[in-house]
Each structure stands twice: as C-alpha cells, then as structure tokens.
C-alpha cells in the first residue's frame, strides 16, 4: 500500500485548522496542524510534507516569511496560501515568492481539498523543463535547464521556479504570442485554479530581473489585446 501523502496545515484560527484537517483526513491524507510560523518551520525540519496549506497572517513568523525561507532552500514544497480578501498585495507577493496557488477566506473546504489534489498532481507530473535539453541563447539571455540557471550578458539572474518555467516556455517559442490563459495552461497546468493575473505578476517580475529597463522591455513584450511574446532579438 502506498504511503499517505502528508499535508501540513498552518493557521492560527483553531476552527479553520479543525475543519481543514477533518476534510483532508476524509480524503486519505496524513495531516499535521500548527498554529504559528515557528512551529511550522520546526515541523518541516522534522519531516518534509508533500504540501503546505499556509495562512499568510501568522504570529511569530508569517506566511510570506515561511514561503521566502522555503524557496531559498533546496526542497521545493508545494504551497497553497490562505488569504483574506483584503490581502491582495500580500497574495501577489506570495505568488512572486513561489507559492503554487491561493484560496481566499472564507472558503469552501471541498474547494480547498480539490486544490490540494490538483497541486499535488501537478507536482508529480512530468516537469515542464527537461533537464536534458540544451541551453537556449536568445540575444543576451542564456537559460540552462540542467542547472536551472539564467544569465543576462554573462551575469547570473536568480529566478523562482515558476519564473524559470515561464521564461523557458517563452524562450522555446520565440516571437510567438500567447494569451494569459494559454500561458496558464502551458506553464501552470490546465487545471490551475488561480486567475490570469498570476501571469501578469510573473511577467512583471521577469522583466525586472532580465530586462535592462523593465519599463521598456526588449525581450518579454506585451502584444496589446492578446498577451505576451518573447522577442529573440539579434
């Protein structure tokens, strides 16, 4: 019998922890719950979960700090953020840091369970970037799938996992225009629950990192009314 997938639920509201744990256990998951950021980091140190359901507003260490710490490490644990309606800027920051999805409070426990299953399925799927593929060179940009490194004019640029995947996809299709929904399907997966603004956030962050002038991009261009394309240059 295969081992149960383990979910860590981090929220300082006891009723939310109780309900989420109940619904996840009903679906066959092993569940651990913690009420603050320090306890969550300690739980991760003891045993790495398969996925984290993470509230943004936490005592001690908040959800954004936890996401930042995890994404700077070597283990890429899927993260679903729990956010309040008024925390849109924090939600965007969380996505920029590398969170995989988000659910806005108040939420349906059934919907959260569905998202947990979806993110786990994506995490176990064949990776978008084949590490055996040859590096791509487009103008001043070099992207290496084996090492997951990106260089602009021979200087390394540090990207999050999703930023890397988005750049790789666009560079593999130079000068081809994609809508935001097409990018969601191809980079995030067809069953991604989040909205298309996620693409806009990641494009903006990529421009800030790889363009000489993010306000006048040379590579990741907006095609007004349609979407985005990667202009290869010379």
Would you kindly provide a brief summary of this structure?
With 234 residues, the chain is an alpha/beta fold. 40% of the residues lie in helices and 21% in strands.
What are its keywords?
234 residues, Arc Repressor Mutant, subunit A, 2 domains, Rossmann fold, single chain, 12 strands, alpha/beta, 8 helices
Helix and strand topology:
Blueprint: E1 6-10, H1 14-26, E2 30-34, H2 37-46, E3 51-55, H3 63-72, E4 79-84, H4 88-97, E5 101-105, H5 109-124, E6 136-138, E7 141-144, E8 149-152, E9 155-157, H6 161-172, E10 178-179, H7 180-188, H8 197-210, E11 220-223, E12 227-230
Parallel strand pairs: 1-2, 1-3, 3-4, 4-5
Antiparallel strand pairs: 6-7, 7-8, 8-9, 10-12, 11-12
Helix pairs in contact: 1-5, 3-4, 6-7, 6-8, 7-8
